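Cross-posting from the chemistry board since nobody answered there.

I work mostly on the small-molecule side, so proteins are not my area. We synthesized magnesium ion and want a rough idea of how it might sit in this target. Sequence and SMILES are below. Is it possible to get a predicted 3D structure of the two together?
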Amino acid sequence: MRTIPSPDAEQRPRGLAAQALPEQGRFVKEGPSRARIAELAGNSPLLRIDGLVAGYGKMEVLHGIDLQVGAGQSLCLIGPNGAGKSTVLHSIYGFTNIMAGSVTVNGRDITRLDPNEKLRNARIAYILQDNSVFPDMTVEENLWMGGFLMESPAHAKGAAEKVFEHYPRLKERRRQRAGTLSGGERRMLEIARALVMEPQILLVDEPSIGLEPRYIGMVFEVLEDLQRQGKTIVMVEQNAKKGLQFSDIGYVLVSGEIAMAGTGDDLLRDPEVGRLFLGA
Ligand SMILES: Nc1ncnc2c1ncn2[C@@H]1O[C@H](COP(=O)(O)OP(=O)(O)OP(=O)(O)O)[C@@H](O)[C@H]1O
Ligand SMILES: [Mg+2]
């Protein structure tokens, strides 16, 4: 049963900047050691992926992914189109066919939990790459939807009010149809809706995609604020420079494998990463 909009359709036309270069696909490295992956997460991972093989139906997209992120850290996945970045997030959340490997939170195996259980019990929320606000509902109704798993609508409304206190810009527009929000406000609403359930881990796919430059900063400010509140963030960002500047940890994913891992700054300083992925 699917209770939130399907992540399957990536129908959004891709801008020129988002086209993969053939050279990017040849960016093959030995990949980081387990020890380095653990070290980047402070040897104390909150979320951990080990040997993940996953895909859709019989098609294998991820061929043995390891990933670790500590509580309160942020991790950004970069890489060419079709590398499997969204599939990593889908797999954490339970939208893919997992053929091998495991996903754990705080040492607890959550690999086989369904998405609702992930949200309710493992406190993981997923902000999808596709625009997922309900355009004909008001801003507040959209926020209430974020609490659909709570015991009662009254609980959801109470939780939504708490979120509104952090987002005056949304609060002012609470009775406005979500379809009339600006791109940046809509993204903010998607993030705010995910916060209604008070997640500890946020999966964010392409927070800045499709946004005008003036709204990109606004969305990253929202993410920075969440980071200050101690949320753990795993994001995918086509604006690789922005994503790596934001994040404690960066991974380069190529053809379903982790080609490289380092601190965000390590990757920003790497000349080859710069040439292939940062438009430098
Ligand atoms: N729901 C699906 N069903 C079947 N195949 C899929 C599905 N979603 C993605 N794929 C395929 O899996 C591969 C990896 O796709 P994925 O969306 O994870 O890439 P990505 O790195 O996020 O790319 P992009 O930068 O374009 O968003 C692609 O070959 C894609 O066609
Ligand atoms: Mg994607």
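Reply from a structural biologist on the board:
Welcome over. Reading the output above for you: Strands lie at 45-56, 59-70, 74-78, 97-105, 108-109, 124-127, 201-205, 232-236, 249-254, 257-263. The pocket of magnesium ion (ligand 2) is lined by residues 85-86, 129, 205, 236 (CB under 6 Å). Happy to explain the token format if needed.
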